[in-house]
Amino acid sequence: MTGAAIELVAVNKWFGDFHVLKDINLKVAPGEKVVVCGPSGSGKSTVVRCINKLEEHQSGTIRLYGSELTNEPKSIASIQGEVGMVFQQFNLFPHLSVLDNLMLGPMKARGLSRTEAEQRARHYLSRVRIPDQAEKMPQQLSGGQQQRVAIARSLCMEPKVMLFDEPTSALDPEMISEVLDVMVELALDGMTMIVVTHEMGFARKVADQMVFMDQGEIVERGSPSTFFESPQTQRCQKFLSQILHY
Question: At 89, is the secondary structure helix, strand, or coil?
């Protein structure tokens, strides 16, 4: 058994002839917040998609709390129950109200009654600061509100780990902070999180570990203070100079 919440050992992934992940090794402790950054096409999103079994890795090992993830349907169902995922796009069902979007998973996958699911849904809508939006349809909400609904929907499954794949990249600038504020609160509450993002202010505030990827490899990792103040590689220095404009 391992003490890690998530552990990747020598994980490789190809799309056809393209080697998108090259011997990825990553360990995330329970309660740890890991921010993954890097240029477009570096493999960041593929890492989190492999953890959630939305993509299949071809070699190496991924473990969740010591249990190896396989491609067996039972393993996939198990991981997707324990790991919440928030995407760039909100992926809400447009024909369902906000409340019904949140109740669907707990009722179908967790066996909650309608009353129990509604109680849980309203709790997590309050957690993301939009309890008054429960009866609305997704298209009646702003982008920032829809993303907070998407976060609440994942929380309704009460996962052990939350994965975020560039959750603010589709938002207008004025809506980004309302989503990041919710994520900061989650982090402060002790949620285990892997966040793919270019929001470096958020990273400085909450990350325990920074991971920089380029061309399918983890090039550099370290604490936020070391990562931002004294990056070790030229590739990381160049990336930070471009994104932070210094």
Answer: coil
